[in-house]
Amino acid sequence: MSVFSVCAICLLFLVDLVFPKKACSKQDVLDYLNLTRDNEKFTTCRPALDWTHPTIVYFDIYFYGILSMIEKSQIFVPLFWMSVSWNNERISWNPKDFCGIKSVILPKEMLWKPDLYVHETAEKEDGPLNPYIYVTHDGNVKMEDDHKIVSTCTMNVHKFPFDTQTCHITVSSINYSDKEIKLVPASNSSKATQLARESILTKGEWEFLNISVSLQNESYEDQTFDRIKYTISVRRLPLMHFINFQLPVLFFLVLDLASFFIPDRGDKLCFKVTVLLGISVLLLILNDILPSKSHRCPLIAVYVVVIFSFMLLSLLETILVIYLINMNSEQDAKGVQTPEDHISDTDNRKRHVNGVEPQMNDTQLLQLILEELQNIRQSLVTDTLKAKTAQIYWFGTVKRINRVFFVVYLISVSLFLVFIFREWKVE
Question: How do residues 229-252 score in pLDDT, each as one tens digit?
């Protein structure tokens, strides 16, 4: 070590002994600024030395979760971290005068804050907010808060549960026009989207897509107000809805198609009625899910109602078939004459000729009986052939009706399912 270095160290040691190091606190900064809770100079007016110079307010949100989305009441509850910063021209100090102190943390009520609010807020926020703000030596003030906002959101449930929703968070000042406060988004759309994807924590049944940031102007009573609009796009995860609702409806439809192969028409009718009642229960569940008012009819409602209509037509066709078969059986029963009827008719003819019963010997009686038996046999054969012919005709007609209806039913259902799933898939 050189002599010069030793002398320099000794000189510094002597300076510390003669002039001890100054002790500083952040309260010294507040005293220097005369910054107290009851000083209206810092809390009442906008902190601009020249009132014609607007205060530039940088606003940013960090979206990190979706607490809930309620379609029935059109409510969207996002979670995000809000950051607001601006310059207070009444505050500044030299860090060298205060032992290098470059920033202080103050209670919010000690300084003026921009009166920002969210347009879509449906309920007053009840969660705890950060009570402090961060102030730097050059007058830059930063305020950060964690927010859970219950906001309104116009939801389009046309493609439920394969839908994509876009909800808005619009921020602006209540009292200050753009001549006094200039709102500037601190992050653009790509940066806000990237930060949200990195920090997303809760999403439930929703998948976050992107955030669009835009700066807009709003005119009111000859004044123009700046506002920042955040458009949050999310997509529903449809798996559970598909498994719990759409798939059971499809299963009911398959069962209705399979019921065409049930031979007993009575059992077939009971089976179809039971399946139709099952669809009715699912319609009640759907009514609890979807909102009562919608700009367009949801596809899932079309899906269920049309399938319900197909099954109702199938039930009516079964009733028609059973009616035709029963009507044919009744006509056959009325048209066929029994052997007892033939014997009774013959006996009456022979016994009541001009009101006098004829006298016959045994040979004549046997011959008469033989002739009548031949007539009865010939009549029975003819009636039976006619009945069987009619029965074959009606059964053939019923089978053709059933076959044609099944083919048309199957083709119509297939075309409808292809159409409805293509509509769900199209963006």
Answer: 999 999 988 888 888 888 999 999
Residue range 173-201, pLDDT digits in tens: 988 998 999 999 999 999 999 988 888 87
Tell me which residue has tokens 């971290």.
Answer: 81
Best CATH choice for the domain 25-237 from the list 2.40.110.10, 2.70.170.10, 3.20.20.70, 3.90.1150.10: 2.70.170.10
CA angle, corner 390, sides to 389 and 395, nearest 5?
100
Q: Is 177 helix (H, G, I), strand (E, B) or coil?
A: coil
pTM above 0.90, yes or no: no
Beta bridge partners of 85: 58, 142
| CA–CA–CA angle 218, 223, 225 (5° rounding) | 40
Strand partners, 180: none
Q: What is the mean pLDDT of residues 130-155?
A: 90
CATH superfamily of 241-425: Neurotransmitter-gated ion-channel transmembrane domain (1.20.58.390)
DSSP 153: -
Give backbone dihedrals phi and psi of 70, rounded to 5 degrees, phi first.
-110, 110
What are the structural domain ranges in the chain? 25-237, 241-425
> Are 286 and 300 a contacting pair, CB within 8 Å?
yes
